[in-house]
Amino acid sequence: MSSTELQLPALGYGAANVGNLFRELSDDESWAVLDAAWESGVRYYDTAPHYGLGLSEKRLGAFLQTKPRDEFVVSTKAGRLLRPNPDFNGGLDTAHDFFVPDDLQRVWDFSDAGIRASLDESRERLGLDRIDLVYLHDPERHDLDLALAEAFPALEAVRAEGGVQAIGVGSMAADALARSVREADLDIIMIAGRYTLLEQPAATDVLPACHERGTGVVAASVFNSGLLAKAEPTRDSRYEYGGVPDDIWDRLQRIVAVCRAHDVPLPAAAIQFPLRDAATRSVVLGSSRPEQVRQNAELAALDIPADFWAELASAGLIP
User: Considering only CA atoms, which of 196, 284, 298, 273 is closest in space to residue 17?
Assistant: First the structure.
């Protein structure tokens, strides 16, 4: 791990929604969401070129330009460059769940030149003089071996030159995260959906590797596609990209029963659970509605009794 220690606030905002994830937001609606996050005390913001083909970075940057630069931390991602789509015919990027014109396309590029171009273009879209933290985005979806041979060394060089303060990897794949931590010199990783109140595959290999290497963790997708976002989940909720499997639903019902017994809201437990591991620096939450942003901030600060966690652990529901 690098000698530079980037301080991350415990609560972050994940800006995919202001890139029109799942539904279109106007510029004003997006601003209201970001403003609610800022007013709720959020000082860490995460984005990516992938989110809305650059729209998330542009909207987030426009908002953050109105704030003192030393009062917030911003991260983005690299690995996919945005280039003109030769087949554009007025369609939308709904194949990736973003409601934006697909006049651009994502092009994988793990070369040194590609990583540097990605960062330069992100800075331009954000309109900020610097990016604090950059993650390599979903490298296993392209070529993890190539990432380890080219992309991570490129990021390490940019960090050594002072281009960013910290580097990492963001992924939903526990095996790719564990291998990246062990084989590259990373500061912080983003674990998406693999270390949550409901399921903890990252606890097997990823977290031990992080403890061993001194690598920090940012937990994302802690609501498991929204399944943990309400106090009383419903059977027709979305899990990953489909329905809820029976074994997952049964486990969730056992967790809900413990929440009821201790009068702990399920979403509060979901937000705070990852922070119980010493490696976890921050939990990043996304939302497309100001009131939900404010509610998440309140739930993140809610006092949860120690015996609640102890009961979950003794029932084998958390490590």
Answer: 284
